[in-house]
Amino acid sequence: MKEEAASRNGKRKRQRNPKTPKEEPNETPKNQNNDKKRQRDTKTQKSNQHGGSSALSKRPTPSNFLDTLREKLSGGNFRRLNEKLYTCSGKEALDYFNEDPTLFDMYHTGYQQQMTNWPELPVNSIINWLSSRRSSLVVADFGCGDARIAKSVKNKVFSFDLVSKDPSVIACDMSNTPLESSSVDVAVFCLSLMGTNYSSYIKEAHRVLRPSGWLLIAEVKSRFDPNNGGADPKDFVKAVSDLGFSSSLKDFSNKMFILLHFKKKFNSNKKKIEWPELKACLYKRR
Question: How confident is the model at residue 165, as a pLDDT?
Fold first, then answer.
């Protein structure tokens, strides 16, 4: 009896305190988490490949943003430089660029960008005019820029500008060139009558031109619109004529610019010539 009771007590103890068998570490939850993470990563990659959300797809890339920023900064600097050149004297502009020649590059980069919006360039009209005449004519290009005229015709061309970035370009104030008197046949001003003392440039052209030499002027049309603050073209033609030229051509047919041609007739005997103020060509902020 005692042995049976002991046996029953032992079974009850074993039932109350069963031994927990040793188990291997359960990796399933961790693996499931990794699988879910991989699935999320895959979905994210696919979303990016297909453009992602509309907000992300509209966000500019860093390189595009910097290009846009540089363009805006460059445009702002060009506008300020352009205004400076139209509202100061040629001597002041020369000193300005001598102090920092990199500004000249900045200005002409902006200038070239502006010219891309013009349906027709006045410099091409002047090149065509020269190409239709004798290549023996000697030319003085006042405010030559990239010296396109010299590169496009067979004539001997003296190219002048405030800064020289090319061995063929002579840096100087256009009211005081190194040319001898009566030494050239054609004087050109293509969008270059800038500055408050523009009349001194035309006087210099008169000095260096031979008798019967040509003066070719191409200028922004708005500068000669008296209804919008520009000069009256009749007053300008009269002033040039009083200096000793005869008017040969007045072409206002182009939307963007005018063409004026003169021939040197005599040396001016007038002590004072009434030069009209030319409207500054300023560009609006965009």
Answer: 83
Q: 214, 219, 213, 261: which is closest to 237 by C-alpha?
A: 261
Mean pLDDT, all residues of the chain: 80
CA distance 199 to 244: 13
Cβ proximity of 245 and 265 under 8 Å: yes
Which is more confident, 168 or 24? Answer: 168
Whether 139 contacts 149, CB under 8 Å: yes
Q: Label residue 278 left, alpha or beta by phi (over 0 means left) and psi (-120 to 50 means alpha).
A: beta
Give the CA distances from residue 101 to residues 107, 131, 169, 192, in Å, rounded to whole numbers and listed in that order.
10, 33, 14, 18
Identify residue 19 by its one-letter amino acid code.
K
8 Å CB contact between 82 and 115: no
Q: What span, in angstroms and rounded, lies between the C-alpha atoms of 114 and 82?
A: 11
**Per-residue model confidence (pLDDT) at position 74:** 54
Mean pLDDT, range 70-89, rounded to an integer: 73
**Residue 73 pLDDT greater than 80, yes or no:** no
Place of tokens 């040197």: 264
| Whole-number Cα distances in Å, 14 to 2, 5, 219 | 18, 14, 112
CA distance 38 to 198: 73
Q: Under a CB-based contact definition with an 8 Å cutoff, are residues 171 and 163 in contact?
A: yes
State how far the Cα of 170 lies from the Cα of 181, in Å rounded to an integer: 17
CA-CA distance, 251 to 261, in Å (whole number)?
9
